[in-house]
Design a protein that fits this description.
single chain, about 450 residues, alpha+beta, Thrombin, subunit H, Pdz3 Domain, six-stranded antiparallel barrel, six-stranded antiparallel β-barrel, 7 helices, 21 strands, about 35% strand
């Protein structure tokens, strides 16, 4: 038979005495007290976290006007317009909504020749036994078709539209304006700016469509533009996507660029231009660049080839003069001096051994073009090649303040005083500005 092992007897009194000795131990009591204290501290920290910090977080959100997350019982997202709780985002939405009805697409159309390939004997019928034929393109009539598109925006209720000169420079083409509500109107070119890449066209009312209801844009003040401020571009991107909106910032001011159209048939140098990283694609030319107030601060003009997010716009203050002139005289004119020049800097000073490092040095062109335009204001006033024009009416000519920029501040027929360095002498010459127009 298997015998179970003996179970030792438990001494209750001995255990009781050991337990009592443990409770009388000061170290044990210290540990127990520490545990109780930590539990109490944890309880109060929990109360603070769930009561104090939410109120502080809510105050922080209210201070910066950040959105609160709310649960909506009614799911009406499909029937109501989206309204952002973020003021910056909502400002962009409002600008796009309010300005888009003023932005138009400009479609360019003209008759283009149609060519077909035929086999032609270059010797004609001179030798009937020698039948030598070569392929040659032969015109077979013409076809009326769309050849391009750009953008513009309404600046008056009677149909004046501001756009880029290179959009409407083809005198053989016809122009059609497409408004945001889908209406098509013929348009005629009223005036082209002889200096800036600007033009003004007028929408021709169509009685079959009914009265035109046009919404002019609000023109801002480009003199107060700051680098870093928000810039919103609207236009007919790629000639296909009307009223496309892109957002960026003003990346730079006072830029000088050489701009040309895609065909290379039109090019010019533009000064004092706004740089932006808002997307300006082909077809956006002539569209508005706006601030967060919905005011037009520039006219989208060009984009840098071979680079991303580098676009350019003409400041709106330059266009205000054009709009006023067209309303009053139906044309755009600029004061004209009639000299070819290079702005003086340290390099030019050394090359031509000048005594000054500023001003405009009157020179011939690289291909021998005359330094002084015949019968111009400069010619009549006696300005000579190699003169250095230092200032106009006391305004100093520098790299950042060119002679052309200063002259544009004056009017046709106005008399101005040129301070000139001729050789080693400084003289003053009075000039009555002429007219430059297209």
């Amino acid at each position: 038979m298997y015998n179970l092992p003996d179970i030792p007897k438990i001494n209750i009194k001995n255990i009781k005495s050991k337990v009592l000795s443990i409770f009388k131990n000061k170290n044990f009591l210290g540990v127990v007290f520490l545990i109780i204290a930590l539990c109490l501290i944890g309880f109060y920290v929990n109360v603070i976290i769930f009561n104090y910090f939410p109120s502080q977080t809510q105050a922080f959100l209210e201070y910066f006007k950040l959105p609160q997350v709310e649960t909506s019982e009614n799911n009406n997202a499909d029937t109501e317009s989206y309204v952002s709780d973020i003021s910056y985002e909502q400002a962009i939405i409002d600008v796009a909504k309010n300005a888009s009805p003023s932005v138009v697409s400009i479609v360019i159309s003209k008759n283009l020749p149609i060519y077909e390939q035929e086999l032609i004997n270059p010797f004609g019928d001179l030798d009937p036994f020698f039948n030598f034929q070569i392929p040659q393109q032969v015109q077979k009539g013409t076809q009326y078709q769309e050849i391009g598109a750009g953008s513009g925006f309404v600046v008056s209720k009677d149909g004046l539209v501001l756009t880029n000169k290179h959009v409407v420079i083809d005198k053989q083409a016809d122009y059609t304006v497409l408004t945001s509500d889908g209406q098509k109107y013929p348009a005629k070119v009223l005036a082209l700016d002889p200096v800036q890449d600007l033009a003004i066209i007028k929408i021709v009312a169509d009685k079959t469509i009914g009265p035109m209801i046009l919404q002019p844009v609000t023109l801002g003040d480009s003199s107060g533009i700051q680098i870093g401020q928000t810039a919103i571009a609207i236009g007919n991107a790629l000639g296909q996507f009307s009223n496309t909106v892109s957002v960026g910032v003003v990346s730079g001011l006072g830029r000088t660029i050489s701009a040309s159209d895609q065909s290379g048939s039109f090019s010019e140098t533009l000064e004092d231009i706004i740089q932006t990283d808002a997307a300006i694609n082909s077809g956006n030319s002539g569209g508005p660049l706006l601030n967060l107030k919905g005011e037009v601060i520039g006219i989208n003009t060009a984009m840098a080839q071979g680079a991303e997010a580098i676009g350019f716009a003409i400041p709106i203050n330059m266009a205000k003069r054009d709009i006023e002139q067209v309303i009053e005289t139906n044309k755009i004119t600029y004061p004209f001096l009639g000299v070819r020049y290079v702005l003086v800097d340290e390099d030019v000073k050394k090359e031509y051994k000048l005594s000054v490092d500023y001003g405009a040095l009157v020179l011939k062109g690289e291909k021998g073009e005359l330094a002084i335009t015949a019968d111009s204001a400069a010619d009549r006033a006696g300005i000579k090649e190699n003169d250095v024009v230092l200032s106009i009416n006391g305004e100093k000519i520098t790299k950042n303040n060119s002679m052309a920029k200063i002259i544009q501040k004056h009017n046709v027929g106005e008399k101005v005083t040129l301070h000139i360095l001729r050789g080693d002498k400084e003289i003053d010459v009075d000039v009555t500005l002429g007219e430059r127009s297209i």
